[in-house]
Amino acid sequence: MLNDEAIYKKILKSIVEHQLPPGARLPEDKLSEAFGRSRTSIRKVLQRLALERIVTIEPNKGAHVNRPSEQEAQEILDSRIMLEPLLIPEVMKYWSKANSKYFRAMLKEEKEAEANEDQAALIQLTAQFHYELAALSDNSVMADFIQQLCYRSSLIIAVFGSRHSVSCDCGDHLELIELMDSQQDKKAQDWMKHHLVHIKSSLKLGVSDGQKINFQQLFANTE
């Protein structure tokens, strides 16, 4: 039987891969039957996804996959373009060989996900790279805000993006690490801005309507 973390990853993967499209309802009873878990466990997973703005929960209506608008997509990426480069000098104050080693290991996971064409994992890992980098700064308020923007970006990229949105086409994170290793603050800031601008330009705005979901079939063989 799957635990809550595994259920979370399966639902998120299905959203990222458009098996659960924007607007799709997520009934607790059907998900409970599909995963063989209690509705309480399913509710916890949906609440976690709601905190990350991947799912919306409405009173008396239940949960559904968030449907980001084109304006929201543009505003989220514009916010990241404005804010993330500003944190680079603060991050550089705490940058170390240990940090470099940690983020290089994360890049290895990104490359493996890309090689395996695992779009869901790749979107998660690239978002994690950005918000963990921001967390190195001494501005916890800004870092927390960027983390929320990264969560919301994950759904936006899943809906409006393509493999190019999270591939080297938008810039290899290794380039940023090497700039930071050599203490090139300004070039690192410029790289981050251009990287995020490329991600925004890779989005193909416009979403399609949802469809009826067979949860038993979608989440079959979840042992």
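the 2nd protein, sequnce then structure:
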Amino acid sequence: MAAFIKLLCVFFFLSLVSEGNCQCSLDNVSVVQSKSKLVVQQKPVWNVTINLDCPCTLTDLVLSSNGFQTVLPLDPTVIVQSGNQLQVTANGGTIAPHSNTAFAYAWDTSLSFNPVSGQPNCSG
């Protein structure tokens, strides 16, 4: 019985340790925008930076982009639009730990981008 309790304690401890290795979620993703001095077709260019504040990689990040429009073509090696969502494609769709990805668009006003899905990978 004592051996079983010790084994159970070891299992519980290891499960707590493994949970602590990856505390990453969409809460670790922030989107920051700034208006540049550039103008395309009489519309200001907005610079967007997607920041990942997490010790893990993040793949398949999708941002909501309701009403997104741009007269400046998006770079498909960085981000692609599909309906009301933007899919990050930079680096094969992977954002490195504590890094950022940037893109630009041109429209009359800044638009709101919110992370809606993504897969943290904390192995290794």
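Strands lie at 29-40, 43-52, 57-64, 79-82, 85-88, 94-95, 99-106, 114-121. The chain has two helices and eight strands.
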